[in-house]
Design brief:
The chain is α/β, with parallel strands linked by helices and 382 residues long. It has 12 helices and 9 strands. The N and C termini lie far apart (50 Å).
Length: 382
């Protein structure tokens, strides 16, 4: 009751009508299926904060010619139907999964960059990548999806301990990824690399290394989004102190809702927001309902403000229900309603819950993608 009253008081102060707040117990359950007018997601610019390359890996692994164009033939049509305008897509990084199965850091990431660029070329103009401010959508796209290429961890740009390269040469690999169209990089994945400590090294971890500081400064100069989703708390605080541009945690949750080291504390949320940055909440099967994600959004709205909230991930859909499963090859569906639904059902349902909680359209627009677009206007090159 105290939590509900606190939410009501906050929304009232924000000028949001209370008439839309009350939800029935049925609406609060995971099985709630609202009756929605068609096309609601297409009213907004939707930015998906983080989509792993799992579906590409799974379809290519089938060694079947009908699966040779995962983006054009399978993923892109579902994104367009769902109203998704921009996808932040890992193009390599520290995780073997994000390198398409290769255990070679630099080579694996380069193969994934090539794979994504080749897949985008196959779409005959229905997909493109965001490189400059002029590529940022100004409204919902029709029959087109833009990709923001990201590295999930900085191990692919690491330097050899010897011979002690000059500052310019130490950053050569970062600049070459930028030339290939990469516009973001999460500094670490779960573990430690030459830039800093991921959360697997302990929740607090250490500050950035000297090399990590140089990378942050060069990303600011080039026009790249600095990602901190997997970074240790002290690493996040350090980045917030030295960056001259907004930073982003593209896919995470709040520690008060899910008490693991992977999720952000209030202090981390405030540090990210202090840079003008964005935190994208994410669906986790078996742990978060969409109602809980909106609880997190309400919490962040009060703690750090509406300008710093995004959506990282709303879960697998019927076209790729889970990692390792490709419809037509594996008949079993995992438990849970989310994975049995289409992307459009995901976004329509999520928007409906936001509306029922009393969020107005201009705030929903910020949450669904507007806040990512705003920071890119500050970060990306002309």
């Amino acid at each position: 009751m105290k939590k509900e009253m606190k939410r009501r008081e906050f929304l009232a102060k924000s000028g949001i009508g209370l008439a839309m707040i009350t939800m029935s117990s049925k609406a609060m359950s995971m099985n709630f299926k609202p009756v929605l007018p068609a096309g609601i997601p297409h009213d907004y610019v939707i930015v998906e904060g983080h989509r792993d390359i799992w579906e590409f890996n799974d379809r290519f692994a089938l060694n079947d010619t009908t699966q040779d164009s995962p983006l054009k033939d399978f993923l892109l049509p579902r994104l367009i139907d769902g109203g998704v305008d921009v996808v932040i897509m890992p193009a390599g990084g520290d995780s073997v999964a994000e390198r398409g199965g290769s255990d070679r850091l630099l080579e694996g990431s380069l193969r994934v960059v090539d794979m994504l660029l080749t897949e985008i070329e196959k779409t005959a103009g229905k997909a493109s990548i965001i490189k400059t401010k002029s590529d940022i959508p100004t409204g919902p796209l029709k029959d087109h999806v833009k990709f923001f290429l990201d590295l999930e961890g900085g191990s692919s740009i690491e330097i050899e301990p010897e011979p002690g390269y000059h500052h310019d040469r130490r950053l050569a690999l970062l600049r070459n990824f930028f030339r290939l169209g990469i516009r973001g990089m999460q500094l670490t994945h779960q573990g430690r690399n030459q830039l800093g400590d991921g959360v697997a090294e302990g929740k607090m971890g250490g500050k950035l290394s000297r090399f990590g500081v140089e990378v942050v400064e060069e990303m600011n100069r080039l026009g790249m989004m600095i990602g901190v989703s997997h970074l240790s708390a002290n690493g996040i605080f350090h980045v917030a102190e030295i960056t001259g541009k907004p930073i982003a945690s593209t896919h995470t949750n709040i520690q008060k809702f899910i008490n693991t080291s992977r999720q952000h504390s209030d202090e981390e949320l405030k540090a990210i927001a202090s840079t003008g940055g964005v935190v994208g909440i994410r669906y986790i099967e078996g742990q978060t309902s969409y109602e809980m994600l909106v609880d997190e959004i309400e919490y962040m709205a009060e703690l750090i403000g509406m300008d710093h909230i995004g959506v990282g991930w709303l879960g697998h859909d019927v076209g790729h229900p889970r990692v390792g499963q490709v419809p037509g090859y594996t008949d079993e569906l995992p438990p849970g309603e989310i994975e049995k639904q289409t992307m459009q059902e995901h976004w329509a349902r999520f928007i409906e819950i936001l509306e029922k909680r009393g969020f107005e359209k201009h705030d929903i627009s910020k949450i669904l993608g507007g806040n990512f677009l705003r920071i890119w206007e500050r970060i990306l090159p002309e």
